[in-house]
């Protein structure tokens, strides 16, 4: 490896470390998520919201990610639904909808995307089961709060 490659690798690692420090410092996750009977240890929380066309109101998504890249995503499109992504880059699997509640606070007081709230559900479908009783704060794009 020449000197430029080493320098670029170091700079990339340093940037990743800084971004991870920002994410872990501001995002707060408490409670439990259980996937297929095993604890899902979320290390990151991401959120997104959109204004639906035709008066459909605000739609929100909250995604929890573990250290291996698995994801559990909740959304409140029509009723609360959950998707599970078993590995990084895999296709999300629809587990269920209408099987719990999702209370989210977002808006100007937290920034345009950052969210706080709680999710409580028990969904089963497509060969998977997801239970959640989790609270989160400062969940924003790439895990950064406001």
Looking at the structure, what is the overall shape?
globular
Given the helix and strand composition, which structural class is it? Answer: alpha+beta
Number of E-type strands: 10
**Strand order, biggest sheet?**
2-1-10-9-8
Order of helices and strands: HEEEEEEEEEE
Overall mean confidence score, pLDDT = 79
Assembly type:
single chain
* Helical content band: 10-25%
Total domains? 1
Regions with little confidence, pLDDT below 50 for 5+ residues: 5-25
Distance between the termini: 39 Å
Number of helices: 1
Q: Calculate Rg over CA atoms.
A: 17 Å
Relative strand content: over 45%
Largest sheet: 5 strands, antiparallel
Structure characterization notes:
The chain has 146 residues and is of the alpha+beta class. The chain has one domain. Helices cover 16% and strands 55% of the residues. It has one helix and ten strands, in the order αββββββββββ. It has one helix at 3-26, and strands at 28-35, 38-39, 42-52, 57-66, 71-75, 81-85, 93-97, 100-107, 111-125, 128-139. The strands form two sheets. A five-stranded antiparallel sheet has the order 2-1-10-9-8, with helices on one face. Strands 3-4-5-6-7 form a five-stranded antiparallel sheet, with no helix packed on it. Strand 5 and strand 6 form a beta hairpin. The termini are far apart.
């Amino acid at each position: 490896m020449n000197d430029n490659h080493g320098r670029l690798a170091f700079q990339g690692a340093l940037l990743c470390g800084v971004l991870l420090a920002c994410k872990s410092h501001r995002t707060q996750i408490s409670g439990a998520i259980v996937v297929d009977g095993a604890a899902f240890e979320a290390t990151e929380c991401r959120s997104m919201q959109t204004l639906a066309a035709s008066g459909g109101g605000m739609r929100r998504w909250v995604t929890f990610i573990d250290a291996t890249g698995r994801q559990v995503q909740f959304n409140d499109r029509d009723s609360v639904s959950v998707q599970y992504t078993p590995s990084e880059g895999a296709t999300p699997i629809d587990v269920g909808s209408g099987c719990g509640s999702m209370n989210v606070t977002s808006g100007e007081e937290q920034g345009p995307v950052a969210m706080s709230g709680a999710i409580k559900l028990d969904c089963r479908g497509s060969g998977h089961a997801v239970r959640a009783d989790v609270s989160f704060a400062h969940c924003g794009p790439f895990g950064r709060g406001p």
